[in-house]
Design a protein that fits this description.
The complex is a heterodimer of chains A (331) and B (289). Chain A has 331 residues and is mostly helical. In chain A, helix 5 crosses helix 9 and helix 13 runs antiparallel to helix 14. Chain B has two domains: 59 residues; 210 residues, MetI-like fold. With 289 residues, chain B is mostly helical. Chain B starts with 11 loop residues before the first helix and ends with a helix. Classes of the chains: A mainly alpha (331), B mainly alpha (289).
């Protein structure tokens, strides 16, 4: 190549310039192609992983949901919408779904309000502010298994601290981990991790321009009014994100299982009724009964419901959420 | 904001009010912090009690004698170190692989273009909202069919295929780096792989460590995947702590379980405390943009 170029330069002086132009011209075309190829080379691990480990299992579950597959009996068969029909007529499914919905609409707003309140508290000038932030966030780092065991001990009917406090005030001890109180323990165990919302809201609070609050103060607005009219709108994208991810997390929580007397999958049968959320119903069908076909139908129903709920949340929020974006940056 | 912002001539009345407000604020903060530490403190206390004290009614607030040997027994009663090793292997393998693969994919989304990129990025963001539990259960059936149950291959595969959340983290970081960096390298005849490896990766230590720690704590804390995919002796510490401390009758031995969960949780708390800044930065970026 180099040899050829050298001879061509000596043979035809004018060709040297043309050759150079071609040399820069040709890579420019292939540069774009190279970038395209490189893009797919770089993103391929995720694309492949998404197809093999997300789309395939989902498609497999969709297919199974039309069958009576149980992993053992060889003569499972296609039943069309049979599983879905059974699911709709099963009151246990509806109850579990209702409980999961109730849990989502209580636990998500409560943790957002709690997290936001904590964020506002530790955003003030305080002594040992870093220490308070760390202490309040720390429970959010505790793995679910640790949280489950801690709450089981805390709310133990005999030796738990909760009943200790109640008896101290002369109130009768309560069977916290059984019906109907178990739902409150579940709620508290989830709220224990509100530091997560706190940290994310705190980052948002720090982005709120100081001048806005100062202007509001000069105009005579109360602290609450300033919070409602300045802080909340500016934080609304963060709050929307928290609502959606919180809702999805709450539907999937395995905390009811971890709070059950036996924490392994065989413990599903020991979950008190009030904590028997939809996901636990899926687990029961999957593991206790091995009804993979029926459980897959339950999963797909849940998946579609989550999609609908996410869409609704976004739609309802579209007017309420304020994006403080620089119009210049918008393309 | 409070005392300092007052004019020097402020009346004693105002000063008292400020002081009362400050006192209330700290009282609220200290009690909330106490409430938040309570469950963990109770876990530690329970690990130091005798079986009798843990069954006593009404509650036995403090152990008569601190039963430190519960912690030693938690080690020997089950193969604690073996389970901890399993957890460590899985978490290290997954965190390393997923950090590298997510950085790799993140570089693609931040620095390269191709037709279809917008759609793919939308799918990536959307897939962050996919309920993982919905995919995990059928994934388990597929892995069972492929004979990968009771091996660590699932974590290798999950690690290799990048995590959307971490991809997004890396994408945000790489997108903010100056364009001249790669242009100079392209002029020098560098391929994109070596631009990524030699120029971008060495500059991204903050994100690399945040991603590694986040992935490590996920895996260390994960309960359901190892519970489904691994048998009793290959399983992780999370599963062992939850299920293995039982007597012959199948009832949990609470004092050992409490002691074991303290030892299971504390490493994660330590990692968090040491790496706090990067960790929090990573957590909050995800919520904002």
């Amino acid at each position: 190549m180099t040899v050829h170029q050298v001879t061509s330069v000596t043979d035809r002086p004018g060709a040297a310039y043309a050759g150079r132009a071609q040399a820069t011209g040709r890579p420019r075309i292939s540069m774009t192609a190279r970038r395209h190829r490189a893009f797919y080379l770089f993103t391929s691990p995720w694309i492949l992983g998404f197809l093999l480990l997300t789309v395939t299992p989902m498609a497999y579950a969709l297919w199974l949901s039309f069958t009576t597959f149980d992993g053992i009996s060889p003569n499972w068969r296609y039943v069309g919408l049979g599983n879905y029909r059974e699911l709709l007529s099963d009151p246990v499914t509806w109850d579990a779904l209702g409980r999961a919905g109730l849990f989502a609409v209580t636990s998500v707003p409560l943790s957002i309000v709690a997290g936001l309140a904590l964020a506002v508290l530790v955003n003030r000038p305080l002594t040992a502010r870093g220490l308070f932030r760390t202490l309040l966030y720390l429970p959010a780092v505790v793995p679910p298994v640790g949280a489950g065991i801690a709450f089981k001990l805390l709310f133990d009917q005999n030796s738990g601290a909760a009943n200790g406090v109640l008896t101290f005030f002369g109130i009768d001890a309560v069977g916290w981990l059984a019906d109907p109180y178990a739902r409150y323990v579940l709620l508290m165990a989830v709220l224990w991790g509100a530091g997560n919302v706190m940290i994310i809201s705190l980052a948002g609070l720090q982005d709120v321009p100081r001048e806005l609050h100062e202007a509001a103060r000069i105009d005579g607005a109360s602290a609450w009014r300033a919070f409602r009219s300045i802080t909340v709108p500016l934080l609304s994208p963060v709050l929307l994100f928290q609502t959606v991810t919180g809702m999805i997390a709450s539907v999937q929580t395995i905390m009811p299982l971890l709070l059950a007397p036996l924490g392994d999958t065989s413990g599903i049968t020991t979950i008190p009724q009030s904590n028997y959320l939809y996901m636990m119903h899926v687990f029961a069908q999957y593991f206790a009964l091995g009804r993979y076909g029926y459980a897959s139908a339950l999963l797909w129903v849940l998946f579609v419901l989550i999609l609908i709920a996410t869409g609704l949340i976004f739609k309802c929020a579209s007017g309420a959420v304020f994006y403080n974006v620089d119009p210049e940056a918008k393309k | 904001m409070t005392a300092t912002s007052l004019p020097p001539t402020s009346s004693p009345d105002v000063r008292v009010r400020v002081r009362v407000r400050r006192l209330t604020l700290y009282t609220v903060l200290v009690s909330v912090a106490g409430l938040f530490l309570g469950p963990f403190g109770w876990l530690v206390l329970s690990g130091l009690k005798t079986q009798g004290e843990l069954a006593a009614s009404p509650v036995h607030w403090l152990p008569d004698v601190f039963q430190w040997h519960n912690f030693a027994r938690a080690f020997t009663e089950i193969d604690f170190l073996g389970y901890a090793r399993n957890s460590l292997i899985i978490a290290l393998v997954y965190a390393t692989l997923v950090t590298l693969s997510s950085a790799w994919v993140g570089f693609g989304f931040a620095r390269l273009d191709a037709p279809g990129k917008k759609v793919l990025f939308g799918v990536l963001l959307g897939s962050m909202m996919l309920p993982q539990m919905v995919t995990l259960l059928p994934t388990y059936l597929i892995f069972a069919k492929l004979g990968m149950v009771d091996t660590y291959w699932p974590w290798v595969l999950w690690g290799l295929s990048a995590a959307p959340y971490l991809v997004f983290l890396f994408r945000q970081f790489f997108a903010g780096m100056p364009r001249e960096l790669e242009e100079a390298a392209i002029v020098d005849g560098c391929g994109y792989a070596s631009i990524f490896w030699r120029i971008f990766l060495p500059q991204s230590w903050p994100v690399l460590s945040a991603s590694f720690i986040i992935a490590f704590t996920w895996t260390w804390g994960d309960y359901i995947a190892p519970q489904l995919l691994l048998s009793t002796d290959r399983t992780t510490l999370a599963v062992a702590v939850m299920t293995a401390y039982v007597n012959e009758g199948g009832t949990p031995v609470l004092e050992l379980q409490a002691a074991a969960s303290v030892m299971y949780v504390v490493p994660i708390l330590l990692i968090f405390l040491v790496a706090q800044r990067g960790f929090v930065a990573g957590m909050s970026t995800s919520g904002l943009k």
